[in-house]
């Protein structure tokens, strides 16, 4: 079974998907983490995000793996190296949307996501899972929240991770990424026509997970 969870940054997708996968006994596949790992490698090789040819060539010879960590969270492996912490740093977040908008990069990543997702029951979270990666997913959700609330959540998360950043800087980053992710030519962020829209602004994480679980367990209505 494939469950697609899409939505903008800061809406709570990753946390919800992790808990949802755990409660269903599924594998959690964080597509954003894969684009972040590639972005880290591009930075380490001093590649310019505008040099699409070099970025695509790099993507084609990069190994990205997701594996379960001892705490139950996902560990992200870039060419066998654990980069789970590093890919969350602001310098990666600032650049990731520019790397992820490159068509050739997306082709490589989508292929890998399909391979990983097809190998077991999975929850995949990202921007284009229900529209492009698995258009035939068994269940599709689009998780959203008010912009202010998304900024507040992302700021709290970064502070808890020990990153010093102002609310204004987080707001500017989210606005910039929302724009790039939803206006790019290739597979932009968009709610799939058959995805269930969930506004999580006034919901706790537990409520969102509960809502998803009950919808997944309910018989699917087909029109
Ligand atoms: O969910 P996140 O913030 O970790 O995602 C980081 C970036 O990766 C996001 O700004 C756009 C890109 N991304 C994408 O283009 N397609 C996906 N399916 C998932 C993420």
List keywords for this structure.
223 residues, alpha/beta, Rossmann fold, single chain, 16% strand, binds 2'-deoxycytidine-5'-monophosphate, globular
Question: Can you characterise this structure?
Answer:
- Helix content is 50%, strand content 16%.
- The protein has 223 residues and is of the alpha/beta class.
- The chain has a single domain, classed as Rossmann fold.
- Strand 4 and strand 5 (81-82) form a beta hairpin.
- The protein is globular.
- The two termini are 21 Å apart.
- The protein binds 2'-deoxycytidine-5'-monophosphate.
- 2'-deoxycytidine-5'-monophosphate binds next to helix 2, helix 4 and helix 8.
Topology:
Layout: E1 2-6, H1 13-24, E2 27-30, H2 31-44, H3 52-60, E3 64-68, E4 74-78, E5 81-82, H4 90-100, H5 103-118, E6 122-126, H6 129-133, E7 139-144, H7 147-160, H8 167-183, E8 196-199, H9 205-217
Parallel strand pairs: 1-6, 1-7, 2-6, 7-8
Antiparallel strand pairs: 3-4, 4-5
This protein binds 2'-deoxycytidine-5'-monophosphate (DC).
Question: How many beta-strand runs?
Answer: 8
SSE ordering:
EHEHHEEEHHEHEHHEH
Ions and ligands: 2'-deoxycytidine-5'-monophosphate
Instruction: Give me the CATH fold name.
Output: Rossmann fold
Instruction: Give me the number of helical elements.
Output: 9
Name the CATH homologous superfamily. Answer: P-loop containing nucleotide triphosphate hydrolases
Low-confidence stretches: none
Tell me the Rg in angstroms. Answer: 17 Å
Percent range for β-strand residues: 15-25%
Query: What would you say the CATH architecture is?
Result: 3-Layer(aba) Sandwich
Which strand order does the major sheet show?
2-6-1-7-8
Kindly state the percentage of residues in helix.
40-55%
The largest β sheet comes out as: 5 strands, parallel
Shape: globular
Quote the distance from N terminus to C terminus.
Answer: 21 Å
- Total tally of structural domains: 1
Question: pLDDT average, as an integer?
Answer: 95
Multimerization status: single chain
């Amino acid at each position: 079974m494939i469950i697609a969870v899409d939505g903008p940054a800061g809406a709570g997708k990753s946390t919800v998907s992790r808990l949802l996968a755990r409660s269903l006994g599924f594998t959690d596949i964080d597509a954003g983490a894969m684009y972040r790992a590639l972005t880290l490698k591009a930075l380490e090789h001093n590649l310019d995000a505008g040099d699409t040819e070099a970025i695509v060539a790099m993507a084609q010879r990069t190994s990205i793996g997701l594996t379960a960590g001892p705490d139950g969270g996902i560990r992200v492996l870039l060419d066998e190296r654990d980069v789970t912490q590093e890919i969350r740093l602001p310098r990666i977040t600032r650049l990731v949307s520019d790397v992820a908008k490159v068509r050739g990069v997306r082709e490589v990543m989508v292929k890998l996501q399909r391979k990983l997702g097809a190998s077991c029951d999975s929850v995949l979270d990202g921007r284009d899972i229900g529209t492009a990666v698995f258009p035939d997913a068994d269940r599709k959700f689009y998780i959203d929240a008010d912009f202010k609330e998304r900024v507040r959540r992302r700021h709290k998360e970064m502070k808890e991770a020990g990153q010093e950043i102002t609310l204004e800087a987080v707001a500017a980053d989210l606005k910039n990424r929302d724009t790039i992710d939803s206006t790019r030519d290739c597979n932009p962020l968009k709610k799939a026509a058959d995805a269930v829209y969930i506004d999580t602004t006034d919901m706790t994480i537990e409520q969102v997970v509960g809502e998803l679980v009950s919808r997944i367990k309910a018989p699917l209505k087909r029109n």
